[in-house]
Design brief:
The protein is α/β, with parallel strands linked by helices and 589 residues long. It folds into four domains: 151 residues, Orthogonal Bundle (DNA polymerase, domain 1), CATH 1.10.150; 101 residues, Beta Polymerase, domain 2; 68 residues, Beta Polymerase, domain 3 (2-Layer Sandwich); 242 residues, Alpha-Beta Barrel (TIM Barrel), CATH 3.20.20. Helix content is 44%, strand content 14%. It has a seven-stranded parallel beta sheet. A five-stranded mixed beta sheet has the order 2-4-7-6-5, sandwiched between helices. Strands 8-9-10 form a three-stranded antiparallel beta sheet. α22 links the parallel β16 and β17. α1 runs antiparallel to α2, α3 runs antiparallel to α4 and α13 crosses α15. The radius of gyration is 26 Å and the shape is globular. The structure holds 2'-deoxyguanosine-5'-triphosphate (DGT), calcium ion (2 copies) and zinc ion. 2'-deoxyguanosine-5'-triphosphate binds next to α11, α13 and α14.
């Protein structure tokens, strides 16, 4: 899969062009990178099938970029990129997770202090050299040190949304490989954590008719052979008959274990984790005088009690089986013992997507294109929520454009029967908490999302007041990406979340679980707190391209990790129920 590699290069080219004061390329390259990183189809396949033309048909990819991709496929390099790097030999990769250090700052740091990587920067900041540079100060020096510390926590972790298509493809390919009976990716991937450290895959080898010939062992070796020679394997770290570990081309490690059939459930349970969940489970086994490990559950005489399926292990230990998303030792074990687990929302129960953008603002595709793909993905309804408010932000629509969009949506709703399109918008919340569009317009939308897109750096008290005031507006149905965090890039705004949850419950304002791979905000723990306050949640992919609409599953996973049930998530209502719900004035709900 080339997509993530090319996206990374394009992101870096955007930064390098910014350093050169280029007017247009930075935005163009960044936009292309954003679209490419979330595409499911492999760029290499597209090129092999359709050549340069095929590449240029991709939204946001022009001739020059298509040629870069072609060059990369053919030579593994892009000359323009190499040249840019030669002019500014800065290890941009190492800075990608450091918040608030932009390309212009990096160039200044390089020119004045010779800073090339994160270590140089930390040293310079510690020595107090950064504060004396023009346009830097003691405050930015402190911020830099704080960002570096924060980025350490993320190092080596990958976004679930970007890893997911790759793992699913590997699973599919392994499932059809010779000798494989069963295969499943476990670990944090199966628990759908927002970021993944490494990929843990389990397989069962098909038994051989004549077991004495060692057929199963042979099959196991064949699986290993297949795994280690998959095209996206960059390097084999360890290779054995039942366990191997490789590094994939995107930089993440993946290991594969082949286990006997009667241990598959036990191994699945063990390698799904989490570690803390397993430790508690093992204690329960020990209290019975039993032993639990990746081979099975055994009594004190080492007699095998269970292990073929996960369900039988949990059952034997006196627990109800629970979804992997819940296994973090956050109270789920106690509830499973008491047979009181919540019935968390199912993927299929979510019927619609409540945030996306089109060519009317900063999206890449038309309303009709979005609707068609969403319908193919099985959505029963979508809300088109282009930006409105401050026209400078993300190409926001003016009033005439809004009305034009409504007419188009009405026409499309007559034309496309299988999916209902809601008239929505994402409106800016001003620094004082007022809404950047008059009420008389807000009132005419089916659904209004209020978001913070500017003035991120307010004090905790002011930011909390700002959001609460926005929620008090009767037309604001949903606060989208409520904390504003961007995984690996930006911690959220300063907020008193308890106050926010209380106000959301009081004003009947819905809080969004944004399903974009690096947002997933609210996160799992905050979702649980919100639900405890009686707050309703919504799911929106925040798609800026039709290729991002599939991300809804990431938001659902996050909802499940936060123990949300069907009644907590407004997207589980059908279109009719939802519209009715949204049109009741909030005060009367
Ligand atoms: P990651 O890879 O950092 O995103 O997180 P996980 O949860 O995938 O962790 P990983 O890959 O280190 O290990 C996979 C699973 O193996 C983990 O979820 C639970 C199990 N495991 C690992 N180490 C231990 C351990 O020391 N004790 C127990 N009981 N289980 C462990
Ligand atoms: Ca793992
Ligand atoms: Ca692992
Ligand atoms: Zn947007």
């Amino acid at each position: 899969m080339l997509n993530l590699k090319i996206a990374k290069i394009f992101y870096q080219m955007a930064e390098l062009y910014t350093m050169k004061d280029d007017q247009f390329r930075p935005r163009a390259y960044e936009k292309a990178a954003r679209l490419i990183e979330s595409m499911e189809d492999d760029l290499e396949d597209i090129y092999k099938k359709g050549g340069l033309k095929g590449l240029m048909a991709i939204e946001g990819v022009g001739k020059g970029m298509a040629e870069h991709i072609e060059e990369y496929v053919k030579t593994g390099k892009i000359k323009n990129f190499e040249k840019l790097k030669h002019d500014a030999p800065i290890d941009l990769d190492s800075f990608s997770s450091v918040e608030g250090v932009g390309p212009k700052m990096l160039l200044a740091l390089y020119k004045n202090l010779g800073v090339k990587n994160i270590r140089d920067l930390e040293k310079a900041a510690r020595a107090g050299k950064v504060r004396s540079l023009p346009r830097f100060g003691q405050k930015s020096e402190e911020n830099i040190l704080r960002s570096i510390a924060l980025s350490r926590e993320h190092r080596g972790r990958f976004l679930l949304g970007f890893v997911s298509p790759i793992v699913l493809k590997m699973e599919r390919e392994l499932a059809s490989a010779p000798g494989v009976q069963n295969v499943l990716a476990c670990g944090s991937f199966r628990r759908r954590r927002e970021t993944i450290g490494d990929i843990d895959i389990l397989a069962v080898a098909r038994p051989h008719r004549d077991a004495k010939q060692g057929g199963q062992a042979k099959n196991s070796r064949a699986i290993m052979e297949y795994f280690c020679s998959m095209p996206n394997v960059e390097k084999i770290i360890a290779r054995g008959d039942t366990k191997s570990m490789v590094r994939l081309d995107i930089g993440i490690d993946a290991d594969l274990r082949v286990v006997p059939e009667k241990s598959f459930g036990a191994a699945l349970q063990y390698f799904t984790g989490s570690k803390d969940h397993n430790i508690e489970l093992r204690k329960i086994a020990i209290r019975q005088g039993w032993k639990l490990n990746e081979y099975g559950l055994f009594d004190k005489n080492d007699k095998y009690l269970a292990g073929k399926t996960e369900e039988e292990i949990y059952k034997k230990l006196g627990l109800d089986w629970m979804a992997p998303e819940m296994r973090e030792n956050r109270g789920e074990i106690e509830l499973a013992l008491a047979h009181k687990l919540p019935k968390i929302v199912e993927y299929a129960e979510v019927l619609g997507d409540l945030q996306m953008h089109t060519t009317y603002s900063d999206g890449a595709h038309t309303v009709e294109e979005m609707a068609e793909v969403a319908q193919k993905l099985g959505r029963k309804y979508i809300a088109i929520t282009d930006h409105v408010g401050h026209l400078k932000i993300a190409g926001a629509m003016d009033v005439a454009t809004i009305e034009r969009q409504w007419r188009e949506i009405e026409k499309l709703n007559k034309k496309i029967k299988k999916i209902k399109i809601l008239k929505g918008c994402e409106v800016d919340i001003n620094p004082d908490g007022t809404i950047a569009l008059p009420d008389k317009y807000l009132a005419k939308f089916d659904v209004v999302l209020g978001s913070i897109h500017s003035n991120f750096k307010m004090s905790r008290a002011d930011m909390t007041k700002r959001l609460i005031r926005a929620m008090e507006n009767p037309h604001v149905d949903i606060i989208s990406h409520p904390t504003g965090r961007v995984i690996h890039k930006r911690s959220g705004y300063e907020l008193d979340l308890e106050e926010i949850f209380r106000a959301a419950a009081r004003t009947k304002t819905i809080l969004e679980i944004n399903s974009y791979p690096d947002r997933l905000d609210l996160n799992d723990l905050n979702i649980r707190r919100a639900i405890e306050h009686g707050v309703k949640l919504s799911l929106g992919t925040d798609s800026h391209s039709k290729n991002q609409l599939h991300n809804l599953d990431l938001g659902i996973a996050q909802a499940r990790r936060g123990w949300a049930t069907k009644k907590d998530v407004v997207n589980c209502m059908n279109a009719e129920e939802l519209l009715k719900f949204l049109h009741i004035p909030k005060a009367r709900l």
